[in-house]
Amino acid sequence: MAGDGPAPASRSPLGQARTRPTVTDQAAAQPQAVMGPAGARQRAVARQRAGAQQRGDARQRAGARQPAVDSAPEDPPERLRSALAGVRAVLLDMDGVVVLRGRPIPGAGDAVAALRDRGLPFRFLTNSSLWSREGLSARLSEAGIAVAPGEIVTALSASASLTARRWPGRPLYVLAAPDALREFDGQHLVSDEEADALAAAQAAGRMPVAGAVGPAAGGTAVAAVVVGDAGRGFTYERLNTAFRLVRGGARLVAVHRNRWWLTPDGATIDSGAFVRALEYAAGRRSFLVGKPSPAFFRAALATFVAGGVPATVAAPPAGDDGSGPASADDGRRASGPDPAAVLMVGDDLQTDIAAAHRVGLRTAFVLSGKHGAAELEACRSRGRDDLPDAVAPSLSGIVAALD
Length: 403
Known about the structure:
The protein has about 400 residues and is of the alpha/beta class. The chain has two domains: about 85-125 and about 290-400, HAD superfamily/HAD-like (Rossmann fold, 3-Layer(aba) Sandwich); about 160-290, 3-Layer(aba) Sandwich (Rossmann fold), CATH 3.40.50.1000. The protein is built from 13 helices and 16 strands. The strands form five sheets. The protein has a six-stranded parallel sheet, with helices on both faces. Strands 6-7-8-11 form a four-stranded parallel sheet. α4 (about 110-115) packs parallel to α13, α7 crosses α8 and α8 crosses α9 (about 270-280). It is elongated and about 70 Å long.
């Protein structure tokens, strides 16, 4: 669930994925109607595209980012090279960019190796919370994609950092897969039975509410409920315990709010749906950690400093839900490279592309994952200003175009 690592080898033989056609390819394949309602619809679409091109030209003249637009099939490499000129570091989504449905995307391993060979710093920035960073690294390596744990920034690891900083030593109730709990090593995690007993005692008035502080609080109330990817572990009993704790005052921490993701079995409900259910039932807003939180992107940018990428200072983020800092860096200032020199590569037009634009990153959209040509064209037809700066069939095409 947002589980971006490949499935174990026994369940996930390598498969060949067909590259999705580009929007231009699809348009070229359509018959050209010139009369009647169909012709009118085609002319309306043409006017929309012309308007989008004019808006893009105006932004370019103003020196602003120019979103990618349809180009002739014979010159996409030139357009890509122009859009990606000057990139000095890369953030990569995982699911839909290097793996899909638990299997490696063809060419992704070579593309990652090419980034490393060229000395271009990169980090994987993922909402994954099924596995720890060590677990993700091992699974990617088994799939032929060599990535060290330190090159991975996950919403799960950011959540563990947040709880360690905000509630040191306080009890936490974490809904996540077994390997994911490794990120919380050294923190006070309560079992299902302990969480249920604490919720019952709190409801009966036998202990202070979760928000209490000082000696009277005794440090026994659960400080936060963290919702990650628990898979079949999202039972009624566990969700009800989480609801009672949040209703009693524990902070609800959302590792991410993704609604669904692609697994070997197809489209699958994600943990964001359970977060929303708890918000609705308890009447509380969750504290978002992962994408699309601006703070999560800034925290990832800060990891590049040690690699020698020229640093700048990011402004402290505003809260994304009106209840305080958005998440990962808890509102603190973080050093990192100039966002305009950093490329975010993703397959989700909202959590990857639009969110990255909000913090000033350049963006590249790949057609190898969750969203494809239809979703991209829908964004274009609405005249959105958060379109990707570059579009390619896969990560291989993006890496080949970098200077």
